[in-house]
Design brief:
- With 497 residues, this protein is an alpha/beta fold.
- The protein is 37% helix and 19% strand.
- It has helices spanning 92-103, 109-125, 141-152, 169-172, 176-185, 210-219, 235-243, 261-270, 278-284, 291-296, 315-336, 348-362, 396-403, 430-448, 450-457, 479-493; strands at 2-3, 15-23, 31-40, 43-48, 57-61, 66-69, 71-76, 128-135, 157-162, 193-198, 223-227, 252-255, 273-276, 301-303, 379-382, 409-414, 417-421, 424-425.
- A hairpin with a 2-residue loop joins strand 3 (31-40) and strand 4 (43-48).
- The N and C termini lie far apart (85 Å).
- 48% of the residues are buried.
Length: 497
């Protein structure tokens, strides 16, 4: 006997999602219609039609919906979520100045915690079950402890990528307190939490980052790095990593948008992967989203949303913008040659795979990103019976990539635990999260002063000239009409009626 969907989710009980369209994301990209997904403990127990289930299993009606693996974001600055939308009109330079040079150091441990908690809740709400917290605001170990405590208060799966933009990587990685924190907090068991390192390589011929890579190697931790960011990181950084033996299969290269073929060859040869943040690359100027180059070199791809100080915090937007950017470039290049595109290269299935299995590959987690027996039970049901966009369900991959939104996420499981049910988060005190974030905003505004706060949010517009127009705005029909209009206007000025 199964329990109805209206029953409150209870930890430890099996769950069956009945009658959905299942994107297994297996090697063959199998799509199964009208089947069930049974979760027992922290694993997918079975996928198939009309499954028999254990006594007391909770049932979720997935009819008309899409059941897919939980999505994986491989690069999100979660500590910045408390500043949601503040930098909507920033350039990358303004972002660097605001966070790296002027105001990033104003964030206290509790402010990092507020951003992390909000970002974690937001991720679950949109069906993102695993997030790499590219946490480069960890000025002290106290900040790091606060970041982890906040993450572990929300029932998702997280990797803390430890970073510190207020110091050089060879400095903060040498700190015994930082190394002790990493040793203490690492798990390495494939569980709900782990750590890695996050720092960038500037391309300085002296390669001062070598010391930080050596710490990572000694601790057995992967490194994630912002690569190919125009004006900041470049091919020299990739060359130095490769020639010193620090380009490894565990390395995740974020953006990788301003690199030469030589760098892509080096990344491909060493088995690394690339995290594409299309909204970021399109808007901030790291370079054009490199998906076509990455595919040509056979490099694994994952997706990320970067930071909600600018952009959305869900991977539906990431999938949609990635398809748009890649296809736009393909059309544009064809048009320059006087040609047209008749068959698109990047498909909806590709970006859905990047948002799930691609993230699992980047993290070295074969147990994530698939709905097959034995995989970890990170599961998302997309279903919204109240929405006219929910039907007809013809192309499931296209529906996920172009039609679905965060409001359509009906049910989310992480490690077999129901964390969102019937469109509502489970056991999340959103009012408390709001109060915490409001306290951070109040602190920053007071610490900066209102004028600085407002000018940071509303940067000055560049000057713009209107082009001279050879077709002047004159009445082209007749001189008499023009004269009549001038006479009428003069009477109006004179107060005539």
């Amino acid at each position: 006997m199964t329990e109805p969907e209206s029953a409150a989710p209870q930890a430890g009980r099996p769950v069956v999602l009945r009658g959905g369209t299942v994107l297994t994301m297996d090697d063959a990209g199998t799509v199964l219609r009208d089947v069930d997904v049974l979760v027992v403990g922290d694993r997918v127990a079975a996928v198939g039609p009309a499954l028999e289930v254990p006594e007391g299993t909770q049932e979720v009606d997935a009819t008309g919906g899409i059941v897919m693996p939980g999505m994986i974001d491989t690069h999100r600055h979660m500590w910045q979520a408390a500043m949601r939308g503040y930098g909507a009109d920033w350039s990358l330079t303004q972002y660097f100045v605001w966070y790296y040079l002027e105001h990033g150091r104003r964030f206290r441990p509790e402010d990092v915690a507020a951003g992390n908690r909000l970002a974690a809740v937001e991720a679950l709400d949109s069906g993102v079950t695993t997030v790499v917290d590219w946490s480069h605001g960890l000025q002290t170990v106290d900040h790091a402890e606060a970041a982890v405590d906040a993450l572990q208060s929300v029932p998702g799966r997280y990797v803390l990528a430890y970073g510190n933009i207020q110091a050089a990587p060879w400095e903060w990685t040498a700190d015994p307190a930082v190394q002790a924190f990493l040793e203490r907090r690492r798990t390495g068991t494939g569980g709900l939490f782990d750590v890695q390192l996050a720092f960038d390589v500037t391309g300085d011929p002296a390669f001062p980052e070598k010391a930080a890579f050596e710490v990572a190697r000694e601790l057995g931790l992967p490194v994630s790095t912002h690569a190919g960011v125009w004006g900041a990181t470049n091919d020299e950084g990739i060359r130095l990593m490769h020639e010193h033996g620090f380009a490894t299969p565990e390395t995740v290269y974020v953006h990788a948008a301003s690199l030469s073929p030589d760098s892509y060859h080096r990344i491909a040869a060493t088995g690394g992967s690339i995290s594409v943040s299309t909204e970021s690359e399109q808007s901030a100027g790291q370079g054009y989203p490199p998906t076509w180059q990455v595919r040509a070199h056979g490099i694994p791809v994952s997706l990320s949303m970067d930071t909600s100080v600018w952009w959305s915090g869900d991977l539906f937007s990431a999938m949609r913008t990635t398809l748009g950017a890649d296809r736009s470039r393909e059309h544009f290049e064809a048009h320059l040659k006087g040609d047209t595109v008749t068959q698109l290269s990047l498909r909806a299935q590709h970006v859905v795979s990047w948002a799930t299995r691609g993230g699992a590959t980047a993290l070295g987690r074969d147990d994530l990103g698939r709905l097959v027996p034995g995989a970890k039970a990170d599961v998302v049901l997309i279903k919204n019976d109240a929405s006219p966009v929910s039907f007809p369900l013809l192309n499931p991959y296209g529906h996920v990539a172009f039609q679905a939104q965060r409001g359509d996420v009906h049910t989310v499981l992480v490690d077999g635990r129901v964390v969102k049910s019937a469109h509502r988060l489970v056991d999340v005190d959103l009012a408390a999260v709001r109060r915490e974030v409001e306290a951070t905003v109040e602190h920053l505004r007071a610490d900066m002063g209102e004028d600085v706060w407002q000018s940071g949010m509303d940067p000055e517009l560049p000057s713009a000239e209107v082009l001279d127009n050879p077709y002047q705005y004159t009445d082209y029909r007749s001189d008499s009409t023009h004269a009549a209009r001038e006479e009428a206007f003069e009477r109006h000025l004179a107060g005539e009626r």
